[in-house]
Structure formats: structure tokens, C-alpha cells
Amino acid sequence: QVSSGLRTPRLPVWLCGVPGKHGVLFGTDSRLLSHWRAERVFHLYFYSGQQEQTQTAHLTIDTHSHHWEEAPSEDACSPEKRCSALEMAIRTKWAGATISWNGTDPF
């Protein structure tokens, strides 16, 4: 018997397979599952369990910011630089979102 928590999670959880990494992308705010207003600015966490990842990556997602509001950044996705595969995966759900890695090096 599968518990109802596995069939309908209480917190947002995604299993991710990005090139070279498999892991779990999850949030701690259950409102992301049911209230679209919670999708303005929120936090997600990524953990792969691989040896080189010593702690869970904490990401801040802002779905209403615009590229012209951002301060210029070397880490920003541009034609000269490639976006991280995890950022591209997140943008399949929240197109155009600004993603801050909060001091963690993007992988």
C-alpha cells in the first residue's frame, strides 16, 4: 500500500535529471502546490547527494522580475555564457524567472 503522501506530496518535490547530476529539487512552502500567488518570490533547494556537493543548494526564484531590473552580473545567462541545466529545468515551469544561487556556484 502506497501512502497518500507519496501519491500527493504535501510539499513541492521534483526529481531532476540534468546532465551529469541527478537530484531532488524541492520547496518547503506547501502553498506552491495550490496558490499561484505564492509563486512570486520563493525558495527552492537542490540536493544531488554527489560527493562534490557538500550542502544543499539554496535557490531564490523570482517570477516577476525583469531582466532590465537586474544589476549586471557575470553569472547572468547570456549568448556568451551558458545557463546551468538546473536553471533551464526550473524555467520550464517558470519561464523568464530570475534565479539567484545565494552564494553557491551554479552547476
UniProtKB/TrEMBL annotation:
The gene is Mindy4b_0. InterPro entries: MINDY-3/4_CD, MINY3/4. The keyword Hydrolase applies. GO terms for molecular function: cysteine-type deubiquitinase activity; K48-linked deubiquitinase activity. Hydrolase that can remove 'Lys-48'-linked conjugated ubiquitin from proteins. It comes from the Eukaryota. Residues 1-103 form the Deubiquitinating enzyme MINDY-3/4 conserved domain. The keyword Hydrolase applies. Keywords: Hydrolase, Protease, Thiol protease, Ubl conjugation pathway. This is Ubiquitin carboxyl-terminal hydrolase MINDY. Its EC number is 3.4.19.12. Pfam families: MINDY-3_4_CD (PF13898). Signal peptide: none annotated. It comes from Oxyruncus cristatus (sharpbill). Belongs to the MINDY deubiquitinase family. FAM188 subfamily. One of its GO terms (biological process) is protein K48-linked deubiquitination. It catalyses: Thiol-dependent hydrolysis of ester, thioester, amide, peptide and isopeptide bonds formed by the C-terminal Gly of ubiquitin (a 76-residue protein attached to proteins as an intracellular targeting signal).
